[in-house]
């Protein structure tokens, strides 16, 4: 890696349990140059207060180690398009709060699952998501909010590029929105990213616009294209396969994006996958 080539911004999900700076140190110890973390308990409610000094220490660590943009993740329980009004209220409050919390790490990304419409239909789901985003996005915020491409399990909204486009179209401050492409999810949603990467990117560009593509979740899949399952597999051990990931990490439009692993691994496993992917990028890269 030369000075002009920073290499991939690559990392995995990390735990906030020991604090923000500790999370950054863990990232450094496994060779990561970005990472994801949950802005609150992924399955739960209230968020722990963030110590501003701890956030400042992480900012300094990220700067000195030249990290790429971080991709924080909102909790899975946050459903902006639930049929229950209480759930929608909670989701809007949690998202607004999480954006505020992210402002302690300005300039990074906050990714979220658009939601599940639970029998209300995708159209109504999109309406509710748009309403929620219009309520919580603050034109002054330094955080870009990312919609994640979903596998289409159950009644998930965001299973097609068109659904994500419709959300973006409805949002007033759409300059604050981007998309995080999850390789397992798009495969399971029916986009053949392993067999036809160029075709999928062309379709993404036609429907959403590649300027919206801000981050990647790198996951192999346990299931075939279009299965709508959402079961992540380790890199190279699933239906996408190693060659697909070699093409992804070398792609001129993708290699500059932050890439986050969400594969079934412990920290050592992530360290090995990060090395593996850096190897793939170096071998077939330039
Ligand atoms: Fe996700
Ligand atoms: Fe994901
Ligand atoms: Zn998933």
What is CATH's topology name? TIM Barrel
CATH-level-4 superfamily name: Divalent-metal-dependent TIM barrel enzymes
How many individual β-strands?
11
What is the end-to-end distance? 12 Å
CATH top level assignment: Alpha Beta
Small ligands present: fe (iii) ion, zinc ion
What features would you describe in this structure?
This protein has helices spanning about 20-30, 50-65, 85-100, 120-135, 160-170, 185-190, 195-205, 240-250, 265-285, and strands at about 10, 70-75, 110, 115, 145-150, 155, 175-180, 215-220, 220, 230-235, 260. The chain is built from nine helices and eleven strands. It is globular and about 50 Å long. Helix 3 links the parallel strand 2 (about 70-75) and strand 3 (about 110). The protein has a single domain (about 5-285), classed as Divalent-metal-dependent TIM barrel enzymes (TIM Barrel). It has a seven-stranded parallel beta sheet. The protein has about 290 residues and is an alpha/beta fold. Helix content is about 40%, strand content about 15%. One fe (iii) ion binds near residues 182, 217 and 262.
